[in-house]
Each structure stands twice: as C-alpha cells, then as structure tokens.
Amino acid sequence: MKNDNENGHIVTILKIPEKVVNASTDKGRLHYFVVTSPEDERRFEGDVQLVSRYGISVISDIDDTIKISHVTDHKQLFDNTFFKDFQAVTGMPELYRRLVEQNAVIHFVSSSPWQLYEPLQAFIHRAGFPWASMSLKDVRFRDETLFNLFKKGTETKPLQIEPVLQQHSYRRFILVGDSGEQDPEVYGDIARRYPSQIQRILIRNVDDSAAEDERYKLAFKNVPRNKWQLFNHSDEINVGELLKI
User: Whole-model pTM?
Assistant: First the structure.
C-alpha cells in the first residue's frame, strides 16, 4: 500500500525480515533512513516503534492535554504557539513515563498542522515525555487542505485515531484528552464504536466543568461510567488500575 500527496507525505507498508529486525532494534525502536535516488544526496531519517500484537496503547491529544495552549482563547493560543516557549502541563511527563515503564505505547494525535512537527518533537523531548509516534493535521497552504485548520476535532480526529485502532485490533487503548474542545465527544463516539478496544478515557478538566454536567452525560451516553474519568491533576490517575487488562 502506498499513498502520497503534494505535501510529500507517504503512507506505505514495508516488510522487513525478522532476523534483520531482531539484529537492528534498540529497546523496541528501529532507526531507519531513506534515500530517493542515486542522484539525490539527501538522506531522511526516522524511528519506528515496534508494537507487539497485544498490550496497552495510549492515544493522547497534545494541546491543553500535555502542553499548555489555551486553545479556547485565540490570543493566548497564538502567543503560546508562536511567541512563547512550549510549556508542559504539570505532572503529565511523569504520568506518561510511568505508563511506558509498564510497557504502554504512546501515540500523539493533534489538531495542530504537520508544519509544527519539529517544534512539537523538540518540546516533547525537552519536557521529558517518552518517545511516541505522532499524527498531525494535514495542511497545505496552497490548496483546499488549508481549510482543515478550521475544521472541528469531531471531523478530523476520528480520521487520525481509527487507523491506529484498526491496525492494532488486538490491543487495548487509553484515550487521553481535555475538556477545552471536542475530545469528550470524539472519544465517547470512538468508545461506542470500538467498545472492546477502549479500556479507559481520561479528560483533563480545563474549564472547571463537572462530570455530572449535561455535556458529559451526552458525550459518554451508553459508555460505562467506570470507563471515563475527568481529572484536574495527573496525581488523580491510578496507573496500576488503569493498566489492568
């Protein structure tokens, strides 16, 4: 399978002999480089996280979930994106490290455009988050994908999350987001459509809402109450309980 577009993004499946993988991996990660042609001296490098058939994966939002952005305030969002150094939400790097120490795999999904990939990766490394894969919004400023910037998370995030669930259909998933935008609605819908795969939903409370509010009753309708949690600080999350299968 191969899918590329004018951004230069390519989606493909490469089959690598098991003996090559076993000889080349470093703590579950495989480093690779890509060349385009003998005449092109550029070399593109990256890392692949090798994910086992069974286990726990975490799909996490970025803005206002692990990074202070103030998405609902356009001025603060602009300042926090382009002028101020990215700041981690207190306690979240430690929480994610504890999850990875228990063999969870992290996958970041964000409504940020892919052009922010490098500064976001630098922030994740600097803040002490564990290595993770990342899916960002596909935006090209010269065609209709520019309008993706203005689409709601209910339109764009399922398209990023569902391929991960489908590719790893035997794994269980923890979805982590915040109450600032549409994460509760997106995750509630995902939980109803993939009930056997969604282990838990964690929503960081950024707007002083309450779990009894009408919004959450609707967002998590027909989702068992013990499957979702509204939290203010990472200390409220019981990692041991979270990872029970």
Answer: 0.85
> N- to C-terminal Cα distance for the chain?
33
Q: Please state at what angle helix 153-167 crosses helix 183-193, rounded to 10 degrees.
A: 40
Side by side, which strands form the sheet with 133-137?
133-137, 105-113, 56-60, 172-178, 198-204, 228-231
Residue with tokens 């910037």: 149
Dump pLDDT digits (tens) for 67-95. Answer: 988 666 556 655 555 546 789 999 999 99
Task: Please give the sequence-ordered ranges of beta strands (E in DSSP) within the chain, or none if there are none.
Answer: 2-4, 10-12, 29-34, 44-49, 56-60, 105-113, 133-137, 172-178, 198-204, 228-231
Sign of CA dihedral 128, 52, 234, 85: positive
Torsion of CA 221, 136, 131, 177, to 10 degrees: -20
Q: What is the pLDDT of residue 156?
A: 82
Cα–Cα distance between 184 and 202 in angstroms, integer?
9
Question: Smallest Cα–Cα separation from 203: which of 177, 182, 241?
Answer: 177
Distance CA 105, CA 54 (A): 11
Give the tokens for residue 127: 């803040």
CB 66 within 8 A of CB 183: no
Residues 88, 67 contacting (CB under 8 angstroms):
yes
Helical H runs in the chain?
A: 18-24, 74-82, 92-101, 117-127, 153-167, 183-193, 214-219, 239-242
